[in-house]
Prior knowledge:
Elements: H1 3-12, H2 25-39, H3 45-57, H4 59-76, H5 84-87, H6 96-102, H7 104-112, H8 120-126, E1 129-130, E2 137-140, E3 146-149, E4 154-159, E5 163-176, E6 185-189, E7 193-206, E8 210-224, E9 230-234, E10 237-242, E11 245-246, E12 250-251, H9 254-260, E13 263-270, H10 271-279, E14 285-288, E15 296-302, H11 306-316, E16 319-325, E17 328-333
Parallel strand pairs: 5-6, 14-17
Antiparallel strand pairs: 1-4, 2-3, 3-5, 4-5, 5-7, 6-7, 7-8, 8-9, 8-10, 10-11, 10-12, 13-15, 16-17
Region (Disordered): 1-25
Keywords: Membrane, Transmembrane
Domain FecR N-terminal: 29-70
Amino acid sequence: MSPSSANTSRESSSQERTSPDTIPPAALEQASLWMARLWSDDATDAQRKACLQWRQAAPEHESAWQQLQAIDSRLGALPRHAARSELFEASPQVSRRHLLQWGGVALLVSSLGFGLPRTPQWQRQFADYSTGIGEIRNVTLSDGTQLRLDTDTAIDISFDDHQRRLHLLRGGVLITTATTADARAFSVMTREGLSYPIGTRFSVQQQADSTRVAVYKGRVALERRGSSDKMMLNAGQQAAMSNAGMSPTEPLDPTELARFQGRLVAEGMRVIEVLDTLALYRHGVVRCAPEVANRRVSGVFSLEDTDRALASLADALALELVYRTPLWVTLEPRGDS
C-alpha cells in the first residue's frame, strides 16, 4: 500500500476506531508482535499479508496498529543512532530476538507503558523454546540435556565457553542433564534465584511469586537471588525460593512428575483444585458451582484432553457439565439430584 493510500485509509476509518484509552491491551500486544516480525530483515510476503488480514479483522486491531505506527513515526524522527534502523543494521552476530528485546520494540513498548516483555504472549513469541496453553514439548539441547516443557512455558538458552544456563521465563520444565562430561557449569535461572544440578533429573516451576524445585535423581543446589541463602536438595526432596526466603525441604510430591507426562493424579483433591489445574491446560473459563467446590475426588485425569478429563470428573461425582460456549464450562449439581 502506498503512503498516500494508507493515509486515505486511516482518515476514512478514523471515525470507526476506538480511542487509544479504550484499545484492549491484548490488541496492542498482538500489534506489537506483528510490528516486530515485519521490522525484521527476513519478514516474508505471507507474514505481511497475514498482518494485513489481522488488522482488517476488527476495528480495535487497526486502532492498535495505528497507535503503534504513530509511535514508530516519532522514533523515525530521532537521531540515526537512536532509531530502530541502525539496530537492524547491527552486527549479524547479534540475534534478531535480542535486537527486538532491547531495540526498537522495547522502546515502543516502554512508551506505551504496558510492560509487554513481561506478558505471556511476548515471552512465548521471543523465547528460544516455548509451549502454548495445553502443549507439552520435548527439546534436546546441544550438550545432550533433555527438556520437557510444561504448558504455557517460555525458556531461553545461553551456552558459551564457560557456562550452560537456562533462563526460565514462565511455566515449568523437567530437566534431565546430559550424561557426557562437560566442564561448563550448568544452571537454571528464575526470578527468585539459581538452581545448580549435579548429575540429575529435576523440575523447576516459575510460579507467581516463587520458584519451586523438585529433585527426582541426583542433587540440586539452590541459591536465592540478592542474598547469601543457599540450600542443597537431594533426590526425593523439593523446596521453594521467594523474596521472603527459602522454604523448608519437603518430601517429593510424585503427582508433579505425572503432570509432565500429561496426567493429573488427584488423591483426595478438592474439585476447585482439580479445575484450577485443568484450567492451565485449556483456553477459556472453567468454573464450578459453590456447593461442589470443596467436594473431594481421587483419580487420574488427562491433561492432554481436558474435555475428557472434565467429563470423567463429572461422572465420578455425579455432576453435570454445562457448556455455555466451547470456552466457558461450569460444573454443577445434576438437576435430578
